[in-house]
Amino acid sequence: MLWAVGTVFVLTLVANIPAALLYAAFKPKDSPLQLHGLQGPWAAGQLSGISLNRRLLMQDLHWQFQPWWLPLGRVAGHIEGGGEMATLQGGLSLSPGALRLRDFRIAGSVKRLAGMANLSYLPLDGQLGADIETLVLKQGFVDELRGQLNLSGLAWTLAREPMLLGDFQFDVTTTADGVIATASSPSGPLEALGDARLLPDRSWQLKLRLKPRPGASETLLNYLRSLGAPDAEGYYPVRQQGKLS
Q: Buried b / exposed e across 75-84, counting CB within 10 Å, b at 16+?
């Protein structure tokens, strides 16, 4: 009986070690990734921000450690927050060589999220919502991804006046051939069909068919004409490919 009481006492003490104290003791020297405003115990705390190379990535995050994943060799927990930049909520776990997200939701401005990913040069705006059923990263590369990505009120901002493109949905799954995101366009002036693929050799392919809907702006029509001649069904083909470094 005494050993059980002693074990609970020790575990309680360990779980209540301040997160800021552990971070100060174990953070890598000169790391470009910095945590700010840590509060509370490490097992259930919060922070005011995360920055990479002095660029703010996320704000106002809360987490809850989930010890039952430890027997599987994973450090796991539930996180939520994000502040004005974006909102996120779901499960995250770390294991040797892998990072996993499960039942994870992200929502925010396309422009702000692009800036967080160091893609602020993209001339796009709108709202993004992602429902990630499963994401597994191994050695920094996507090993598995399943879920859905929604873009609402997407607009091209490079023109003098923002060019409305509409709403788009990407259903994402993983097969032996890689990660496949199938595109559709529920509403808006631009119809989009096709898919994007991320292959195991880190190459990617984009194959889309674009078609204006009735009421599309003259700016959008001119952009589509710049892509070349449409096919017999009135769709303009878009083909791109590359390879991740």
A: ebbbbebbee
